[in-house]
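Problem 3 from the worked examples.
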Amino acid sequence: MVRVSNCIVGFVNSLVLLLGLVSLSFGVYFVVHGSSHCEKVLKNPLLILGGFSVVVALLGLIGSLFKNTLFMFIYLTVMFFLILGLIGFTVFVFLVTNHGAGKVFSDRDLMIKERKTADFSNWLRNHFVNDKNWNQIKSCLIDAKVCGSVGNNDNDVDFEAFVFFKKTLPAIQAGCCKPPRQCGFIQKNATFWETPKSGAAKADDTDCLTWNNNHRKLCYDCNSCKAGVLDNIRKEWRSLVIINLILLICLIFIYSVGCCARRSNHKSHHKYIRGFA
């Protein structure tokens, strides 16, 4: 008789197998039909995650349903290292996203969410806003038209600047879709700004020199845009810490049940051998 522990392991891994197949399907779809760079970037994580999930799920299914102690041992070994890896990754994410957590911002900074790349950890800066990776991220931002919804009408020249500033802009839009406020540019509408006749308030600020009213350039190469992206990544990764903790609890539970299933399979195997002795 199949024990309850084997049933639980079999049921859980059946779900994991289905999710793995879905992930593989999406990965293959992006390989075949992915047109933009952003879609193609998704294919590798989906294929790797899907393939790994399918292999692990098959090990668990064979070990639990067929009471195969060898497959169950391999399954539990993989689960053990997966739990250790998830603990290490969760601690790492917490450390790299905790830099500058106690930094005090002015009310105006908080309102329009302007940041500087120095407010973030070296690891985040080195891996996301270096020249190679930033060009790829910038391409995705342009394709996603993140600045397309900043204003109600790009041709509305009567758009009042104070209304724009009073909006709580997401960090990416605040950094990529307008010049930094210290430049002193004159706003005509949501994404069109004029340089004062006297020049930018801070002519030595590279962001002021980088700003361009072309909708495919804007401030995508500005330091403030990079900081906005890093701010978004930091928030997403902080949410990931919570998800990882929940996943960790689930994995530990499944691992414990798997250990019970392995002991059950081991006892059944010995009883089967003694029955023929």
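Problem 4, a separate protein:
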Amino acid sequence: MPVKILYNVSMFPASEAKKDDIKKRKGVNSYFKLESDMPFDTWKAQLLVRICDKMKPAKISFDNYDVSFAVQRVYPTPLSISSDEDYTLLLERVQKAKEPAAVVYVQEKPDVMKRKNEESASGNDSEGSETESTRRNRKKSKKKQKTRAPKLCDIDEADTPLLRNIQALRNRWVCHKKPGCESEFCFINPMDGGTHIPLTFQRLDCWAAAMLKGDATATLEMPPNHQHFKMLPDQLVGQRSVLAERRQQLEQAKSTSTLGSSSAPVVNVNFPAEMFQMFQATRMHPAHLPAPSPTLQVMQPPATNGLLSPRQLQTIGPRMSIQEFSSAFNLSPSLEKKLSEQGYISTHTLRFATVDDLVTSGILRGEIAQLRDAISCWSGSD
């Protein structure tokens, strides 16, 4: 079962590459969460978004950076990551940790800074005949270019189609239910009374990547057939990929073979009728059998402070894991962790929870209010 991994990202400019100890380098920090079943290209795209947001390079490319990772308390020594094999190793080491988290170090390569200096030097040589005021204006212009956000033409060509699809989805599915919906982008389910499906970055990234596979898989109006959109009916999603279809067939064949091999053989034994006559003579008449003692039924008092109201119990939303529910309705990480530790693995298990149970387990009253607000949106009772 895929788990959501927290990646804490530390980014350093090229000037910090001279320091051998990576912990002494000065840079900027960010983070993102991604499920473990996402491919390496999706992981790179999310990392490039953070680099673009924090470091604001003139041209962004994964090849301009030395990227490494470490898992605290398990594998603290940073290891380079630049291929699918390295990404697989990262996932394997994270699974061995107590908590699904890793640290990602992004170091800008020194030759990037060298190219910047050469471009600056060549620009200074061509300014020999310019006046001092013209030079001053040009320097100001260069400073503005260094701090501007990268344009679409500056992004690496391999990542351009994916980012373009993400932007198109954001433009199409802007949520206008304000106030009432906390998500900035939502897919409207027309077959469920216009229910809002929050489009988190993971869902946007999954949808945008599926659009690259063709109109049969996903379009601007049709989400992909993926676990991120499993709450939608089959009529609203695209075709399942050949790989996913084949994987399901293999799992069904494996379960069928396991069931067939575990069934015990049937053995029929015939006994002569004379063997049972001795038992018929000594068998006690039913009238002499003692009457069965009445069973005592213990009635449990109904819960008076249930987490869900009677109305919400009649209009519960789709079955989701606690991780998906937390991501869809923006629960705090601490609340998501507490619910998982208490054994609430899906939204439907919350039907039997009471406020007293949650308070006793250490969940704060403010977190309970946060959970009730999310349940109100999930059940459509807001």
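Solution to problem 4. Residues 126-130, 284-289, 295-303 have pLDDT under 50 and may be disordered. The CA atoms of residues 59 and 153 lie 8 Å apart.
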